[in-house]
Each structure stands twice: as structure tokens, then as C-alpha cells.
């Protein structure tokens, strides 16, 4: 039993990795990383305009950092400050056309994810360009709404903890557990986002059970890679190599790592579906051969 599981896992991971390299997965990871970086600030501009409908008018580094708390500190700190700078500047006069432009450029990042996932799942996208673009814009709006909900949950959590501390003495010993829920909420929203992206963004039809293995692997490896990358940055000074571009280069490299892991998650799902269908085909052929033998023996 264990031997079969090991052999099956070996074949699945081997197929996923070989297909990743054979189809230039590293190049697609670079494309997703750069497109994601270019779409990052337009998305936050669109999110800021979207959030105003919910009364979110002011932005501080503390509030923004709460949204990027899963990133390594060396990336989250400069990134949160730049986001605040962009949003503060943009608040002076938000035009409708600029919001539409921000949504369009943010959707380019979704299109990059679509291209990478189509390659990973080994499918050809025959949907119209107009449909794909409107779907990407819908995902941008959905992402902005999800980020608004996430921001309320993550930003209001410290206030609720403070209120509970002021009015309940016994709650103090459980503060560590309560604060852990902030990360739990972020992981749940991340899981739902990956589920939506893997299910509906690429072409073809997939069941939820088909995409779960790659999603779980993606979240786990993202977490481990973030810890490893943060530890690596403490031992290596990027500013000595890239000078004023250090923060940008760190962000690009980190996004590249996340993109490569994201694509590999799709590759693993595709490999599992391939070997499962392959096994079902072999069993079907074996049953057909057995039936033919029975018929032949019956005639004899």
C-alpha cells in the first residue's frame, strides 16, 4: 500500500515538474510576476475607490500592513508605505475614467494567471477575447470586494480585542489564540480565492475535488517559501547590489517564487487528473478484454 502511494506520488510530481519545464513554466512565472507587479497598484487604486462606498476614506501604514501581513516584513513595510502614498495622491481627485483604467490594468494580472493556468492544465482556451476580458474585470471587482471585507475583519480585530481586554479580565490569557484568528481569516480568504481562480479562470471543466490537492500544496509551500525567503533576506543585503531598486527587486523575486509555486499547483492537479483518467481507461480496457475472452470461450 505504502509502496503504491509512494510510486503514485513520484509519478504525479515527476509529471508535473517535467511538464512545468517542458512548457517553459519559469517564463510564465516571470510573466505572471511582472504582470502582477504592474497590476498591483492599479488594483489598490480601484480597491480604494470601491472601498469609499463602504466609508473607508483614510489609509495608514498600519491599516495597509494588516492587509499584507502574510508577506515577509522586509517586503510588507516598504510596500504598505508605497500603497499609502499612491492612495493618498489618488484621493485628491478620482476621475471615473482613471478608475476604469485602473480596473483594466489590474485585469491584465488576471489574464496572466489565465494564460499560466491554461498551460498548466494543458487546455486550449476557445472562449472569446471579450468574454475573457469581462471575466477578468469581474474577478478584479470580486477581489476588491473581498479585500474590503478582509480589511474590515483584519483592522477591526485589534479594536475588538482591545474592547474585550478592557471589559473582561479572563480574556487576556486567550489573546494569543484570538490574534491567531487574524491569520486564519487571511488563509481562508486566500483558499477561497485560489478555489475560484482554479475552478473558473482557465478553460475546461474541473470538479472542486480535482483542484483541492494543488490548492492545499500551493498555500502550504507559499507559507514555507515566505519563511525561507524572509530568513534569506536577513542574511543578504540587496541594497548593496541593487541600490535604490532593492525593494522593487525583492518584490519581483518574491512574486516570481509565488508565481512558480502557483503554476506548479495547477500542474499537480493536471497530473493527478491525467493519471486518474489513465487508470480508469486501463481498467475499462481490461474489462473489455475480459468480456471478449468470456464470449470467445463461450462460443468454443
Automatic annotation (TrEMBL):
Q: Which domain of life is it from?
A: Bacteria
Transmembrane domains' residue ranges: 28-55, 136-161, 181-201, 208-230, 242-275
Name the membrane topology term.
Multi-pass membrane protein
This protein's GO cellular component annotations are: plasma membrane
- Keyword presence, Plastid: no
Which key words tag this protein in UniProt? Answer: Cell membrane, Membrane, Transmembrane, Transmembrane helix
Q: Where in or outside the cell?
A: Cell membrane
Pfam families registered for this protein in UniProt: Virul_fac_BrkB (PF03631)
Q: Which InterPro entries match?
A: Virul_fac_BrkB (IPR017039)
Q: What is this protein called?
A: Ribonuclease BN
Which source organism does the UniProt entry give? Bartonella tribocorum
Amino acid at each position: 500500500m505504502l509502496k503504491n502511494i509512494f510510486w503514485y506520488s513520484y509519478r504525479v510530481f515527476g509529471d508535473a515538474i517535467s511538464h512545468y519545464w517542458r512548457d517553459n513554466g519559469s517564463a510564465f512565472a516571470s510573466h505572471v510576476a511582472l504582470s502582477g507587479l504592474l497590476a498591483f497598484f492599479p488594483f489598490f487604486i480601484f480597491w480604494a475607490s470601491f472601498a469609499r462606498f463602504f466609508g473607508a476614506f483614510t489609509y495608514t501604514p498600519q491599516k495597509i500592513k494588516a492587509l499584507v501581513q502574510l508577506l515577509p516584513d522586509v517586503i510588507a513595510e516598504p510596500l504598505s508605505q508605497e500603497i499609502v502614498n499612491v492612495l493618498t495622491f489618488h484621493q485628491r481627485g478620482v476621475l471615473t475614467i482613471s478608475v476604469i483604467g485602473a480596473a483594466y490594468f489590474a485585469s491584465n494580472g488576471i489574464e496572466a494567471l489565465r494564460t499560466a493556468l491554461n498551460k498548466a492544465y494543458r487546455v486550449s482556451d476557445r472562449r472569446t477575447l471579450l468574454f475573457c476580458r469581462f471575466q477578468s474585470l469581474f474577478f478584479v471587482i470580486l477581489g476588491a470586494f473581498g479585500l474590503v471585507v478582509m480589511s474590515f475583519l483584519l483592522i477591526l480585530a485589534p479594536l475588538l480585542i482591545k474592547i474585550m481586554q478592557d471589559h473582561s479580565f479572563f480574556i487576556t490569557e486567550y489573546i494569543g489564540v484570538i490574534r491567531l484568528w487574524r491569520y486564519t481569516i487571511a488563509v481562508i480568504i486566500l483558499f477561497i480565492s485560489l478555489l475560484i481562480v482554479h475552478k473558473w479562470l482557465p478553460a475546461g471543466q474541473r470538479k472542486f475535488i480535482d483542484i483541492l490537492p494543488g490548492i492545499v500544496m500551493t498555500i502550504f509551500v507559499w507559507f514555507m517559501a515566505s519563511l525561507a525567503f524572509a530568513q534569506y533576506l536577513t542574511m543578504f543585503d540587496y541594497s548593496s547590489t541593487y541600490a535604490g531598486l532593492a525593494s522593487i527587486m525583492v518584490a519581483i523575486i518574491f512574486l516570481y517564487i509565488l508565481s512558480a509555486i502557483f503554476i506548479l499547483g495547477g500542474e499537480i492537479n493536471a497530473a493527478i487528473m491525467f493519471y486518474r483518467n489513465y487508470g480508469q481507461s486501463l481498467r475499462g480496457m481490461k474489462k473489455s478484454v475480459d468480456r471478449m475472452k468470456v464470449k470467445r470461450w463461450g462460443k468454443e
